[in-house]
Amino acid sequence: MCQGRRLGSIILLLSFTACGSAHPGWKSFPVPIYADAKILNSPQNMGDLRDAFAFWEEKAGKPVYDL
Asked: Residue 31: what are its φ and ψ, rounded to 5°?
């Protein structure tokens, strides 16, 4: 379980930093997130990813991600 949670955290971190300075900023939400098939095909990884989404959406008070 811990490995899947770490994987979800890494993906979310990459979604924030992958585009670097070329990223125009998030002007609207939810932000589209794309996941590798290895994550989508694993119930444990998907659960961890959804838990991570729920955590940040609760902090933001609105939907943040669109998988």
From this structure: -90, 130
